[in-house]
Write a structure and sequence with these properties.
By secondary structure, the chain is an alpha/beta fold. It has one domain: NAD(P)-binding Rossmann-like Domain (Rossmann fold), CATH 3.40.50. The chain has an 8-stranded mixed beta sheet, sandwiched between helices. The chain has a two-stranded parallel ribbon with strand order 7-8. Strand 5, helix 6 and strand 6 form a beta-alpha-beta unit. Helix 6 packs across helix 10. The longest helix is centred in the middle third of the chain and has 25 residues. It is globular, with a radius of gyration of 18 Å.
């Protein structure tokens, strides 16, 4: 493996074990603001933790929710199910949840998705970059030829965020302190990423036979994005950007994993609903500040030191992302 991962510190190991024996969430629906008139985007909200996040948000707040996802039929069915479950579980008859089609596998679909959103809304208060890809067949690439993990998990969200920055920043100037947020759903797989989080000899890792490395690198990108976004947007003093690991969840993300991971998931992983508590902790908790990292199920977490502190590497990653999306802005 190029750039082997550094040895884990005691704090790193503690964060990993926390995922297996995570305490029950304490920051839950009772703590969420009403969010009247606010607008939230959740990517990949048709299944898994994204669906549960959208449902919890719809049931416990009055926010307008947009699910950005690829499959129209699947997402519309999910929204129908969500509304039925909200009515039953939260005793709430009316919810405002809409669909916008986007495909992070193809950067050319992202600007049209943003244009559709902007034709419907004049504000954006929170975006949760939840959509993700994990551990499928090696060697596959996006429409633009990028390795799928970092293309879908990092590059696509980077372009989406870039195109939404103007409305998010504009909205933040009308919000109370801490209301405007960017939530980057990363992973504790950061601890297996190459040194600095990224294999700069070959970001696409075309010769790699280790899907864990590919996934870990893509999620290290997310952490770096969360840390670097505020530095690149000094005018956005009222926007909080943070990352998280939602927890070890029984979700569709593992549908293409090996037999060992599937068995482990059944034995040790948690109901995907718990992941929503991690995501909404990052979205609403007053304890969240720029660059912080949350772990299951809504507590402060640890970022590997070489990923967290190398500002030159952050700038290099940001420049690399910018160069790869500029054609589509």
């Amino acid at each position: 493996m190029p750039y082997p991962a550094p040895k884990l510190t005691l704090a790193d190991r503690k964060a990993l074990f926390h995922g297996i024996w995570a305490p029950k969430p304490t920051f839950t629906e009772k703590d969420y603001p009403p969010f009247d008139g606010k607008v939230v985007i959740i990517t990949g909200g048709s299944s898994g933790a994204g669906y549960e996040t959208a449902k919890s948000l719809a049931g416990s707040t009055n926010a307008k929710i947009y699910i950005f996802s690829r499959n129209e039929a699947k997402t519309l069915a999910a929204i129908k199910k969500l509304k039925e479950e909200v009515a039953k579980e939260y005793k709430k008859k009316s919810t405002d949840v809409s669909f916008v089609q986007i495909d992070f596998n193809d950067l050319s679909t992202i600007k049209p998705a943003v244009e559709k959103f902007l034709s419907l809304e004049n504000r954006l208060d929170i975006i949760i970059h939840n959509a993700g890809y994990m551990l499928k067949e090696l060697g596959q690439t996006t429409a633009q030829g990028h390795e799928l993990h970092w293309g879908i998990n990092a590059l696509g969200p980077h372009l989406l965020q870039k195109l939404l920055d103007p409305i998010l920043i504009k909205t933040s100037k009308t919000n109370k302190k801490g209301e405007s947020r960017i939530v980057w759903v990363a992973s504790s797989s950061q601890f297996w990423a190459p040194k600095g989080g990224i294999n700069w000899d070959d970001v696409d890792n075309k010769d790699s036979t280790d899907p864990i490395l590919l996934y870990a690198q893509s999620k290290s990108f997310n952490i770096i994005q969360s840390i670097t976004w505020p530095k690149k947007h000094p005018e956005a003093t009222n926007v909080i950007s943070s990352s998280l690991c939602p927890g070890l969840l029984k979700s569709d993300l593992h549908r293409d994993s090996g037999l060992f991971v599937k068995i482990l998931s059944k034995l040790l992983f948690y109901n995907q609903r718990y992941g929503a508590y991690t995501e909404l902790y990052a979205a609403f908790s007053p304890d969240i500040t720029n660059g912080t990292h949350s772990i299951a199920f809504g507590v402060p977490g640890t970022i590997r030191e070489d990923i967290k502190s190398d500002t030159a590497n952050h700038d290099k990653a940001w420049k690399f992302l910018e160069e790869n999306v500029k054609e589509f802005t």
